[in-house]
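Working notes for the structural subgroup meeting. M.R. asked for a predicted model of this chain before we commit to crystallization trials. I am recording the input and output together here so anyone reviewing the notebook later can reproduce the run.

Input as submitted:
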Amino acid sequence: MVSNEYFFSKNQANQAMTSTLAEFLGTLILVLLGDGVVANVVLKQTKGHQGGWIVITVGWACGVAVAVYCTAAVSGAHLNPAVTFGLASIGKFPWADVPAYIAAQMAGAVAGAVLVWLSYLPHWRATDSAADKLAVFCTGPAIRHPLANLTCEVIGTALLALGVLAVLAPALVGLIVLAIGLSLGGPTGYAINPARDLGPRLAHAFLPIPGKGGSDWGYAWIPVIGPLLGGVIGARLYQTLWF
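Returned structure, recorded in C-alpha coordinate form:
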Protein backbone atom coordinates (compact mmCIF):
# COMPACT_ATOMS: atom_id res chain seq x y z
CA MET A 1 0.00 0.00 0.00
CA VAL A 2 1.32 3.44 -0.95
CA SER A 3 1.25 6.07 1.77
CA ASN A 4 -0.55 9.41 1.56
CA GLU A 5 2.85 11.07 1.91
CA TYR A 6 3.88 9.50 -1.39
CA PHE A 7 0.88 10.93 -3.23
CA PHE A 8 1.40 14.34 -1.62
CA SER A 9 5.05 14.51 -2.65
CA LYS A 10 4.23 13.23 -6.14
CA ASN A 11 1.53 15.86 -6.60
CA GLN A 12 3.94 18.55 -5.45
CA ALA A 13 6.51 17.33 -7.97
CA ASN A 14 3.95 17.31 -10.79
CA GLN A 15 2.81 20.82 -9.89
CA ALA A 16 6.42 22.04 -9.84
CA MET A 17 7.04 20.46 -13.26
CA THR A 18 3.89 22.07 -14.67
CA SER A 19 4.87 25.48 -13.30
CA THR A 20 8.40 25.33 -14.68
CA LEU A 21 7.08 24.18 -18.07
CA ALA A 22 4.71 27.17 -18.04
CA GLU A 23 7.62 29.48 -17.24
CA PHE A 24 9.59 27.97 -20.12
CA LEU A 25 6.73 28.34 -22.61
CA GLY A 26 5.74 31.78 -21.36
CA THR A 27 9.25 33.17 -21.64
CA LEU A 28 9.59 31.56 -25.07
CA ILE A 29 6.42 33.36 -26.21
CA LEU A 30 7.61 36.64 -24.68
CA VAL A 31 10.95 36.51 -26.48
CA LEU A 32 9.51 35.15 -29.74
CA LEU A 33 7.05 38.03 -30.02
CA GLY A 34 9.31 40.67 -28.46
CA ASP A 35 12.51 39.92 -30.34
CA GLY A 36 10.34 39.13 -33.34
CA VAL A 37 9.03 42.69 -33.57
CA VAL A 38 12.58 44.02 -33.30
CA ALA A 39 13.63 41.74 -36.15
CA ASN A 40 10.70 42.95 -38.22
CA VAL A 41 11.76 46.57 -37.74
CA VAL A 42 15.56 46.43 -38.00
CA LEU A 43 16.28 43.62 -40.47
CA LYS A 44 16.24 44.56 -44.14
CA GLN A 45 13.60 43.52 -46.68
CA THR A 46 10.96 42.69 -44.07
CA LYS A 47 7.40 43.97 -44.27
CA GLY A 48 7.98 46.07 -41.15
CA HIS A 49 11.45 47.43 -41.93
CA GLN A 50 12.04 50.85 -40.36
CA GLY A 51 8.73 50.69 -38.51
CA GLY A 52 10.30 52.63 -35.66
CA TRP A 53 10.47 52.67 -31.89
CA ILE A 54 6.71 52.87 -31.32
CA VAL A 55 6.17 49.63 -33.24
CA ILE A 56 8.84 47.93 -31.14
CA THR A 57 7.44 49.11 -27.80
CA VAL A 58 3.88 48.19 -28.71
CA GLY A 59 5.00 44.80 -30.04
CA TRP A 60 6.92 44.05 -26.85
CA ALA A 61 3.98 45.10 -24.69
CA CYS A 62 1.59 42.86 -26.62
CA GLY A 63 4.08 39.99 -26.47
CA VAL A 64 4.33 40.29 -22.69
CA ALA A 65 0.55 40.44 -22.32
CA VAL A 66 0.06 37.32 -24.46
CA ALA A 67 2.73 35.42 -22.51
CA VAL A 68 1.19 36.41 -19.17
CA TYR A 69 -2.31 35.43 -20.31
CA CYS A 70 -1.01 32.01 -21.37
CA THR A 71 0.74 31.17 -18.10
CA ALA A 72 -0.68 33.22 -15.22
CA ALA A 73 -3.06 30.52 -14.03
CA VAL A 74 -0.33 27.85 -14.00
CA SER A 75 2.89 29.44 -12.76
CA GLY A 76 1.94 32.99 -11.83
CA ALA A 77 3.61 34.20 -15.04
CA HIS A 78 6.88 35.45 -13.58
CA LEU A 79 8.66 35.03 -16.95
CA ASN A 80 11.47 37.13 -15.53
CA PRO A 81 14.17 36.30 -12.95
CA ALA A 82 13.83 39.84 -11.57
CA VAL A 83 10.16 39.20 -10.76
CA THR A 84 11.00 35.81 -9.26
CA PHE A 85 13.76 37.32 -7.09
CA GLY A 86 11.56 40.22 -6.08
CA LEU A 87 8.68 37.98 -5.00
CA ALA A 88 11.01 35.68 -3.08
CA SER A 89 12.61 38.65 -1.31
CA ILE A 90 9.27 39.62 0.26
CA GLY A 91 8.14 36.09 1.06
CA LYS A 92 5.59 35.75 -1.75
CA PHE A 93 7.50 32.95 -3.51
CA PRO A 94 9.59 30.13 -1.97
CA TRP A 95 13.35 30.52 -2.40
CA ALA A 96 13.59 26.76 -2.97
CA ASP A 97 11.69 27.15 -6.26
CA VAL A 98 13.75 30.09 -7.53
CA PRO A 99 16.49 28.06 -9.32
CA ALA A 100 13.98 25.93 -11.26
CA TYR A 101 11.99 28.99 -12.34
CA ILE A 102 15.07 30.88 -13.49
CA ALA A 103 16.43 27.85 -15.35
CA ALA A 104 13.08 27.48 -17.14
CA GLN A 105 12.99 31.20 -17.98
CA MET A 106 16.52 31.13 -19.38
CA ALA A 107 15.84 28.02 -21.47
CA GLY A 108 12.62 29.55 -22.78
CA ALA A 109 14.41 32.77 -23.71
CA VAL A 110 17.07 30.89 -25.67
CA ALA A 111 14.42 28.81 -27.44
CA GLY A 112 12.37 31.90 -28.30
CA ALA A 113 15.43 33.59 -29.78
CA VAL A 114 16.20 30.55 -31.90
CA LEU A 115 12.64 30.63 -33.27
CA VAL A 116 13.06 34.31 -34.19
CA TRP A 117 16.26 33.41 -36.03
CA LEU A 118 14.42 30.70 -37.94
CA SER A 119 11.45 32.95 -38.70
CA TYR A 120 13.68 35.59 -40.31
CA LEU A 121 16.23 33.21 -41.82
CA PRO A 122 16.72 34.90 -45.24
CA HIS A 123 16.92 38.38 -43.72
CA TRP A 124 20.14 37.92 -41.74
CA ARG A 125 22.20 37.78 -44.91
CA ALA A 126 20.24 40.65 -46.42
CA THR A 127 21.12 42.88 -43.45
CA ASP A 128 24.60 44.40 -43.52
CA SER A 129 24.80 45.84 -40.01
CA ALA A 130 26.14 43.54 -37.29
CA ALA A 131 24.76 45.99 -34.71
CA ASP A 132 21.24 45.62 -36.10
CA LYS A 133 21.54 41.84 -35.98
CA LEU A 134 22.64 41.96 -32.35
CA ALA A 135 19.83 44.39 -31.49
CA VAL A 136 17.29 41.74 -32.48
CA PHE A 137 18.53 39.52 -29.66
CA CYS A 138 19.53 41.79 -26.80
CA THR A 139 19.69 45.35 -25.56
CA GLY A 140 22.47 47.88 -25.81
CA PRO A 141 22.97 51.44 -24.58
CA ALA A 142 22.31 54.51 -26.69
CA ILE A 143 25.21 56.15 -24.84
CA ARG A 144 27.59 53.72 -23.16
CA HIS A 145 27.83 54.85 -19.53
CA PRO A 146 27.83 51.81 -17.22
CA LEU A 147 26.61 53.57 -14.05
CA ALA A 148 23.87 55.49 -15.85
CA ASN A 149 22.86 52.41 -17.84
CA LEU A 150 22.71 50.29 -14.67
CA THR A 151 20.67 52.95 -12.89
CA CYS A 152 18.17 53.11 -15.75
CA GLU A 153 17.68 49.33 -15.67
CA VAL A 154 17.23 49.39 -11.88
CA ILE A 155 14.60 52.14 -12.07
CA GLY A 156 12.71 50.54 -14.94
CA THR A 157 12.60 47.10 -13.34
CA ALA A 158 11.64 48.49 -9.93
CA LEU A 159 8.67 50.16 -11.63
CA LEU A 160 7.83 46.91 -13.41
CA ALA A 161 7.91 44.87 -10.19
CA LEU A 162 5.85 47.44 -8.32
CA GLY A 163 3.30 47.58 -11.12
CA VAL A 164 3.06 43.81 -11.54
CA LEU A 165 2.41 43.32 -7.83
CA ALA A 166 -0.14 46.12 -7.78
CA VAL A 167 -2.28 45.31 -10.83
CA LEU A 168 -2.21 41.51 -11.24
CA ALA A 169 -3.90 41.64 -14.66
CA PRO A 170 -2.22 40.44 -17.90
CA ALA A 171 -3.38 43.29 -20.10
CA LEU A 172 -2.27 45.84 -17.55
CA VAL A 173 1.14 44.17 -17.25
CA GLY A 174 1.53 44.73 -20.98
CA LEU A 175 0.49 48.35 -20.49
CA ILE A 176 3.14 48.78 -17.79
CA VAL A 177 5.80 47.38 -20.15
CA LEU A 178 4.58 49.77 -22.87
CA ALA A 179 4.81 52.73 -20.50
CA ILE A 180 8.31 51.76 -19.38
CA GLY A 181 9.46 51.31 -22.97
CA LEU A 182 8.08 54.65 -24.12
CA SER A 183 9.28 56.62 -21.10
CA LEU A 184 12.45 54.89 -19.89
CA GLY A 185 13.49 52.68 -22.81
CA GLY A 186 15.58 55.24 -24.66
CA PRO A 187 18.88 54.98 -22.74
CA THR A 188 19.27 51.18 -22.67
CA GLY A 189 16.49 49.53 -24.67
CA TYR A 190 14.78 48.52 -21.38
CA ALA A 191 15.79 44.91 -20.84
CA ILE A 192 14.07 44.88 -17.39
CA ASN A 193 14.43 41.09 -17.52
CA PRO A 194 17.74 39.18 -17.20
CA ALA A 195 16.43 36.13 -19.10
CA ARG A 196 15.07 38.24 -21.94
CA ASP A 197 18.52 39.73 -22.50
CA LEU A 198 20.99 37.02 -21.51
CA GLY A 199 19.18 34.08 -23.11
CA PRO A 200 18.95 35.64 -26.60
CA ARG A 201 22.49 37.00 -26.26
CA LEU A 202 23.67 33.42 -25.75
CA ALA A 203 21.63 32.38 -28.80
CA HIS A 204 23.27 35.16 -30.83
CA ALA A 205 26.68 33.85 -29.78
CA PHE A 206 26.11 30.29 -31.00
CA LEU A 207 23.73 30.69 -33.95
CA PRO A 208 25.25 30.66 -37.47
CA ILE A 209 24.29 34.23 -38.37
CA PRO A 210 26.29 35.59 -41.32
CA GLY A 211 28.33 38.68 -40.45
CA LYS A 212 26.98 38.85 -36.94
CA GLY A 213 30.02 40.25 -35.11
CA GLY A 214 30.46 39.98 -31.34
CA SER A 215 27.76 39.62 -28.70
CA ASP A 216 28.92 42.61 -26.58
CA TRP A 217 29.66 40.59 -23.44
CA GLY A 218 31.28 43.64 -21.85
CA TYR A 219 27.81 45.16 -21.49
CA ALA A 220 25.93 41.93 -20.72
CA TRP A 221 26.17 42.22 -16.92
CA ILE A 222 24.15 45.46 -16.81
CA PRO A 223 20.81 44.03 -18.08
CA VAL A 224 21.27 41.16 -15.60
CA ILE A 225 22.36 42.90 -12.39
CA GLY A 226 20.26 46.03 -12.92
CA PRO A 227 16.92 44.20 -13.27
CA LEU A 228 17.68 41.86 -10.35
CA LEU A 229 18.33 44.86 -8.10
CA GLY A 230 15.32 46.67 -9.46
CA GLY A 231 13.05 43.68 -8.94
CA VAL A 232 13.94 43.48 -5.26
CA ILE A 233 13.60 47.25 -4.80
CA GLY A 234 10.19 47.33 -6.49
CA ALA A 235 8.91 44.38 -4.46
CA ARG A 236 10.17 45.93 -1.23
CA LEU A 237 8.54 49.23 -2.14
CA TYR A 238 5.24 47.45 -2.77
CA GLN A 239 5.55 45.66 0.56
CA THR A 240 6.25 48.94 2.34
CA LEU A 241 3.36 50.83 0.73
CA TRP A 242 0.65 48.19 0.86
CA PHE A 243 1.64 46.00 3.80
